[in-house]
Design a protein that fits this description.
Helices cover 59% and strands 11% of the residues. The chain is α+β, with helices and mostly antiparallel strands. It folds into three domains: 122 residues, no CATH class; 63 residues; 110 residues, Histidine kinase-like ATPase, C-terminal domain (Heat Shock Protein 90). A five-stranded mixed β-sheet has the order 1-2-3-5-4. 28% of the residues are buried.
């Protein structure tokens, strides 16, 4: 209970949009029509605008909506109008977007309203069960989204940890090279006057390369970065436009990793895939496009591997995204030179 009380609002609540206005407008019209047909006062129409702020102010709108319904019940008895079903949207929003304190307070308001309605012959057990079901759905969606967000954050942190290890290896490699050259220069200093100067030139070059790699955040892994190797064990067709050898090692490695992840996803998840095309264009920037012709059922979303690749691309100042394209799937990445 203490954890629920201290829980903050979940992030990502969408601001009011045109769909909300359409929803409210349609519901008000339905409430008025129902009131006319049933010869009843269409009082729910007065409370329906609360839906406009249900995500940004979930408790306030719940209190106004259910509190207004309470006042109507106390004044006129429990009017039976189908358009009061809009209260379920407020309840869902409370559990989906409210903080822990707001959820507890909102449940108290709803409980009081339900008790009064039951006393006045309105709500029954079935109505209470519907309220509980909607609340459960709102809470389930809330925690499912939060769990996925935590998982995506974990993937990003893992990718950053890998990049940190890569950076450590790069710096260690260059510093080791500088140390060896310095030791060699010292060893032969008495034999040749030019040896220390040559050693300093090499050390300067190594230091420059180390700084370049540090600025890029990622290094060239010791294994060869060969895009053509992707076509070795499956359907991928690799097309390269431009001089790949002129691409900095950090960028080349990232392009290879993204292409490898995309090809692996196509092999594992695409249905009836017959063709996977990996196209790299080296120009002012390095563009990568991986497409497949496999059927795309509900299997795919922002997989963990692609989330990691997107983070790697972002840290290099680029972008990486994936989505549907015609009858297949496409992964696109753009990295600066």
């Amino acid at each position: 209970m203490h954890e629920l009380w201290d829980e903050p609002r979940p992030p990502g609540a969408a601001p009011r949009a045109w769909r909300d206005w359409v929803l409210v407008g349609v519901l008000i019209v339905l409430a008025v029509v129902e009131g006319v047909l049933r010869h009843s006062w269409p009082w729910p129409a007065l409370l329906m605008p609360t839906l406009l702020w249900r995500r940004t102010h979930p408790f306030a709108m719940t209190a106004i909506g259910f509190g207004g319904a309470m006042a109507v019940i106390l004044a006129f008895g429990p009017p039976i109008l189908y358009t009061t079903a809009f209260f379920l949207v407020l309840l869902y929003a409370l559990f989906r977007w409210g903080s822990g304190r707001e959820v507890v307070a909102g449940v108290a308001v709803i409980a009081v309203k339900s008790a009064i309605s039951v006393l006045y012959g309105g709500d029954n057990l079935a109505g209470v069960l519907v309220l509980l079901a909607v609340a459960a759905i709102g809470g389930a969606v809330r925690y499912r989204v939060a769990d996925r967000a935590r998982e995506m954050e974990r993937v990003v942190l893992v990718e950053r940890e890998r990049l940190a290890r890569d950076l450590h290896d790069t710096v260690a490699h260059h510093v080791s090279a500088m140390a060896v050259r310095a030791q060699a220069g010292i060893a032969v200093a008495d034999l040749s006057a030019d040896a220390p100067v040559e050693a300093l030139k090499v050390i300067e070059a190594e230091a420059g390369r180390a700084l370049d790699e540090m600025r890029a955040v990622v290094h060239a892994l010791r294994e060869p970065v060969d895009l053509l190797s992707l076509a070795g064990s499956g359907p991928p067709v690799v097309e390269v436009v431009g001089d790949v050898s002129a691409v900095p090692p950090a960028v080349a490695t990232t392009v290879f990793r993204i292409a490898q992840e995309a090809v692996t996803n196509a092999r594992r998840h695409a249905v009836d895939v017959t063709r996977v095309v990996v196209r790299v264009v080296v120009d002012d920037a390095v563009s990568l496009t991986v497409t497949d012709d496999g059927a795309v059922p509900t299997r795919r979303g922002a997989g963990h591997g692609l989330v990691g690749m997107a983070e790697r691309a972002r840290l290099l100042g680029g972008t990486c995204e994936a989505g549907h394209s015609g009858d297949g799937w496409v992964v696109r990445a753009v990295l600066p030179r």
